[in-house]
């Protein structure tokens, strides 16, 4: 009597199921990565930023209505307030100027002292849909003797940044 299934061998359909499950898991992981890092713009098409953007000459201060543009983002300073002992909260309005998903990274933002020492913001990620605006508060842990003279805003980690005087 012949056996249809021998021990130690997989049935013919189980290998196909394993491949399908693997492909589904890989696709889900890549989609999650793309959404959380803003990498979706590299997988599809992207419109150029709106005309008239780029390096402007205005230097806004706290309470100013002027915004700065850097890369894909337009950022406007709203307030600077104490956020607990040794902490400073900087509230910004951040606008995605493109037709792609982009991210704003809190840890890329820096407070700058008159002698050019910097303090980076706390780790934080805000994902912005195309043309979306969001109010974001970046928290900085500052040394007791640190005096912030400027805020350096970055659209992406490693970008040149734009400085805004704080007062």
> What pattern of helices and strands is seen along the backbone?
HHEEEEEEEEEE
Share in helix: 10-25%
The percent range for strand residues is 25-35%
Shape from CA axes? Answer: elongated
Ranges with pLDDT <50 over ≥5 residues? 38-60
- Beta-strand segment tally: 10
Largest pleated sheet: 4 strands, antiparallel
Q: How many H/I helices?
A: 2
Please state the CA-atom Rg, rounded to the nearest Å. 24 Å
Overall pLDDT confidence: 79
- Terminal Cα separation, in Å? 92 Å
What would you call the structural class?
A: alpha+beta
Main sheet: which strands, in order across? Answer: 1-2-3-8
What's the short story on this structure?
This protein is an alpha+beta fold and 167 residues long. The chain has helices at 12-37, 40-43; strands spanning 68-70, 73-82, 87-96, 102-105, 110-112, 118-120, 125-128, 133-141, 150-153, 162-165.
Walkthrough of the structure:
This protein is α+β, with helices and mostly antiparallel strands and 167 residues long. The protein has helices at 12-37, 40-43; strands at 68-70, 73-82, 87-96, 102-105, 110-112, 118-120, 125-128, 133-141, 150-153, 162-165. The strands form 3 sheets. The chain has a 4-stranded antiparallel beta sheet with strand order 1-2-3-8, with no helix packed on it. A hairpin with an 8-residue loop joins β9 and β10. Residues 38-60 have low confidence and may be disordered.
